[in-house]
Write a structure and sequence with these properties.
alpha+beta; single chain; 43% helix; 6 helices
């Protein structure tokens, strides 16, 4: 990233870039894409297409999928300190908890940072149009959900 890009990029973009670099350093290959969502005190980073071809083959069996899950959990726990430090540098807030889950059929790795709140992450089978979420679609009568 050039210096000018760093200045103008959003916090989410900077976290996504840090997560991409972190994944490349710890596994040897970058994910296909990275999504970052922040709501209140919860940060969710999803690394799409991050399993190696060998891991994808191994994950086709139940036993192999369990091995891939356990490998990524242990690897994440043992190496996540560096990413936590980068997140703190970007956001100005310390990470309190760390958790990572692997969805072996799609190769997505979800890294969830919470403060004791239950987090449910749903990987959709396609993209939902932005207009549906923002309520800006003039033909859609739905409004964004209110906070409970």
């Amino acid at each position: 990233m050039k210096a000018m890009d760093k200045i103008s990029s959003t916090m989410a973009q900077r976290i996504a870039q840090a997560a991409n670099e972190f994944e490349r350093e710890r596994t040897g290959h970058p994910p296909q894409s990275v999504s970052v969502v922040m709501s209140g005190d919860t940060l969710v980073i999803t690394l799409h297409g991050s399993l190696s071809p060998g891991e994808k083959v191994l994950a086709q069996s139940e036993e192999g999928a369990a091995q891939v899950l356990e490998f990524h959990r242990r690897l994440f726990v043992s190496s996540s300190e560096k990413l936590q430090q980068k997140i703190k540098a970007i956001t100005g807030v310390e990470v309190r908890e760390v958790k990572a889950e692997v969805e072996t059929s799609t190769g997505a790795i979800v890294q969830v940072f919470t403060t004791g709140t239950m987090v449910q992450v749903y990987l959709m089978n396609g993209n939902v149009p932005t207009e549906s979420w923002t309520g800006k679609d003039p033909e859609s009568p739905r409004q964004p959900a209110a906070k409970a």
